[in-house]
Amino acid sequence: MSWSCPTVKAGALLSAVCCLSLGQCRSASCYSASNVFSSRPAVRGLSVHLTVFMTGTFVELTLVVVGEPRGQGAVSPPVLGCGAVAWRERWGEEGALQVLLEQLASDPGLSGRDQVQVCCIAVLLHPVGGQRPRLGAQALTDHPALHARMEAILEKHLKKREINPNVRNMKPLEYSILAGRLSQIKEELRQGVKKPYQEVLDVYMGDPHKGGVKPLSFVRQVLAACLYPQLVNSSKLPADVRQRAQRLLGRCDGGSVGSYTATRGIPETLIRVSEFITRRDGGVPSNPENIFLSPGSQWSLSILHVLLNPESSPRNGVLSPVPCHNTTTMSVTGLGAVVVPYYLSEEQGWELQVEELHRAMESAKGVCNPIALYIVNPGNPDGHVQSRKSMQEVIRFVSERKLFLLADEVYQDYVFGENSEFVSYKRVLSEMGPPLSDTVELASFHSASKGWMGECGLRTGYMELVNLDPAVMKHIFTMFSTDTCAPVLGQIALDLMLNPPQPGEPSYPLYHMETQNIKNTLAGNGKRAVEVVNSLPGLCCQPLEGGAFAFPKVYLPPSFIQKAKEAGLEPDTFYCSRLLDEAGLLVGPGTEYGQKEGTYHIRFCILTSAEIMEEVLTRLTCFHKQFMKDFS
Amino acid sequence: MSHQAANGVPCRGKVLTVDNMNPRVKKVEYAVRGPVVQRAVQIEKELREGVKKPFTEVIKANIGDAHAMGQKPITFFRQVLAMCSYPELLKDNMFPEDAKQRARRILEACGGHSIGAYSASQGIECIRQDVARYIEKRDGGIASNPDNIYLSTGASDAIVTILKLLVRGEGCDRTGVMISIPQYPLYSAAITDLGAVQVHYYLDEANCWSLDVAELRRALNAARQHCNPRVLCIINPGNPTGQVQSRQCIEDVIRFVKEEHLFLMADEVYQDNVYAEGCKFQSFKKVLFEMGPEYSSTVEMASFHSTSKCYMGECGFRGGYMEVINMDPEVKAQLTKLVSVRLCPPVSGQALMDLVVNPPQPDEPSYTTFMKERTAVLAELAEKARLTEQILNTVPGITCNPVQGAMYSFPRITLPQKAIDKAKEAGHIPDMFYCMKLLEEEGICLVPGSGFGQREGTFHFRMTILPPTEKLKVLLQRLRDFHQRFTQEFS
């Protein structure tokens, strides 16, 4: 890169910059303005480097010009620096250039003087291995005064766009690609564009209400009465609903769901949670002091934040299953730690094999220091339910290897495999007796988003901590207190979920019927999904034992994989994108959750109404048959 | 530290200990829910168990929680939310038509027409549009783009998210975040937690806690020696100090931020809480855009709002939003990715936010009641702000700036040297010692000034002005008696 200091009139500089053709810029990956200028003798000798960088969907345009006024009174060079990117967002590329030019024109350093010594300095953006471009200012070293100034400009205009590298390292969601297309399709449908479907079915997330499952009447009635306490005295709601609402409101400060609660949650609700756990675990005691409510189980995972030391070297690692829902792995990366994958065995119905855990542990050597093992049981996305024996092996493994055990058990109610049963890690740990039962440190998660009420939108979950050092608990408490508290409606919903109406109460018959329906529908959907998927060529789904998803393997022909590469997409994302386009069905690609190299999967939620499940399977069948025809 | 258990079975020590846990978390402090508050909870329990105390109830003036202090919810908001929660109520004739219409509109925008479905991570689209329209109206027509609105789990979540996005660097390049002293401890906690550097600038107590750009510059230059300051946080109206910034001051800050190329975080959650004559809330965004394209097209900022404060005080819903301005699109993409980790903000809080930005209009049936309730709350707060300042200033040894806005007063207290010595002997910070004693003797729960930061050698406490007027008078009277007794005891 070169720079020079010719004497030109400000106006000449402006016209020189103006003569850059935007059309040319768009097509160029790197554009040197001096080439443009060389054809214009009036500004010969002036060197402007303009770099246009292509990043996937948009073009970055950055130009920094330093002008140095001559004559008396010029103390320091006036600086014109422009991050055109922000302007481009507002006014498009041409608008951005326009603003840039206006700034040049209005700068007293240029427009106010006849003669200006101008040094034009390029900022070079190097694409580095798919990462965002880095700045280069190395060519400036031969002009120390300007160099310092340039550094300052770079700092000011560009370097601040440098963000937290841990955030940057978080794997971008495939969902964002599909979501973009989804909103386009929705818009097209609104405008009346003809498609083979009238609306899109979205079974990407484990979201029962979106999938047509109705909220539980009892839960919603109590919430309505808590929100609008006049309803407590109205005969419009059943007596037990009104009593329950009154009792719950009595636990809120000022009798309002609009007040904050204690950091860990409403104290009485914590007791209800601990009672539920004890009941569930056949009498294993649970201390309410060890329970933390949070705005969803993903927030509870901030326990990782206590565990992971961002300053440790080598970095901390977390053993995490493949496949696994993506938000946990994103959290781990976001905290600057390393995800150490262990693979579930698809051929064995996605079983967790302890030999694989040992292998994963070995693989971490020299890379990171693993300090925790993350388990999802029942599995998401794989639908496997762990056996007691397998859990015992896992517990022995974490004890031997000195790992903290993180047990994501949010799907504990969703177990429908014939010989499957959900047993909590806490229970198995307790049954194994000392020394394990009083040493292995465990965090277990559950959520109001799941269970039969499936209230995802209320965002509340809980975490139970077992065997933690009391001194550490104090800091965990402080950390949680900065989040103030979980949403109060969610806390109340969680309370109701764990303490449903009892036989004899007015709401019981309806509650019982609604939950039984959902339970039966889920089991039916699971069976139906496996049946239909396995009847299709090139699709193969392991038997489902629990959870809210099916995660079948998809065979993708080489010609299709080639096409995907051309489109710049992962093959299974490409498959999902076509499924969305052609059949109006939104499912998740296996890439999002991780899979053995060379295999491809899709994930879809089976906790929907039976009608929607049928429609999902019909659309999938139709699409996939045509797909196999097209690509074989 | 594994050791052999008695029976020879290998046993192990803890994986997670105070020695190996994240050292940053260890340094996090949060005074608003700190030791005084924890002790208050214990005392309440003791009172319930019949333990005799010189008081019958604890008055909690430690946190800006209006409903806990007896403020009633806005009827219209709760009607709509009740219907969103249990849509059967839409069929009933107990609610006004405009409330029903709002409920239908919100449900229409929810997946499966249920507030129990996840929303987009950035928030429900039509609510973001309503927020943008509200901002436009508030700011006299300055455009707001719904794509720049992110709904959040209370303003705290949004604040921490932006800090998390911006913090980077090692050693001398570590990100410095400029925060006022006194400040709201959420900021110091988040900065510590993220391993960034707190850069303190002092508000001028002698001048109604005003902010002076010369002081900003001093702090910035001093900080450049050991970190890389990239963010300036401003709370306006102020927490805990209750000042409302003048337009001139906002302009000065914007010029400073542009000159020094800092990212501006404007915490504006108290935007409706302005009481003092001659004071007016003006958003940073409005002033920024009125300063012309030189500023409005370059200064990067985020502005925060919440359902927890103002006249509604709905803290329990954890609703909030932020608007980002001039953020690089690529950075915005990273922000969108970051918020997706936690799936979405509570939908009930989003619905409430929608109602706050889109309240009943003059031609709608709920308008009169809504305005009556809103005006009553704000008028009472204004009265309590006045009352607090007035009474506190009658106590020898307490001086209190006018509470121009927000929900707190932050009076300065003079502590006798003996008390200071006694506190230090016991290993306490003097104002913590004072607040603990006040709690034990009078059942009044305040937060010591040290939790917010204060000039060395000065002592303060923060109290909310939220208790009902009569209770507030009692509180102030008892505080006054206590202060006099305390001064005597240690002189």
From TrEMBL, chain B:
Catalytic function, reaction form: L-alanine + 2-oxoglutarate = pyruvate + L-glutamate
Keywords (A to Z) from UniProt: Aminotransferase, Pyridoxal phosphate, Transferase
Pfam family, one: Aminotran_1_2
Protein name: alanine transaminase
Domain Aminotransferase class I/classII large: 95-479
Function: Catalyzes the reversible transamination between alanine and 2-oxoglutarate to form pyruvate and glutamate.
GO biological process, one term: L-alanine catabolic process
Pathway in which the depicted protein is active: Amino-acid degradation; L-alanine degradation via transaminase pathway; pyruvate from L-alanine: step 1/1
Top-rank taxon, per record: Eukaryota
UniProt KW Membrane keyword: no
InterPro entries referenced in this protein's UniProt entry, alphabetically: ALAT1/2-like, Aminotransferase_I/II_large, PyrdxlP-dep_Trfase, PyrdxlP-dep_Trfase_major, PyrdxlP-dep_Trfase_small
Quaternary structure and partners: Homodimer.
Alphabetized GO MF terms: L-alanine:2-oxoglutarate aminotransferase activity; pyridoxal phosphate binding
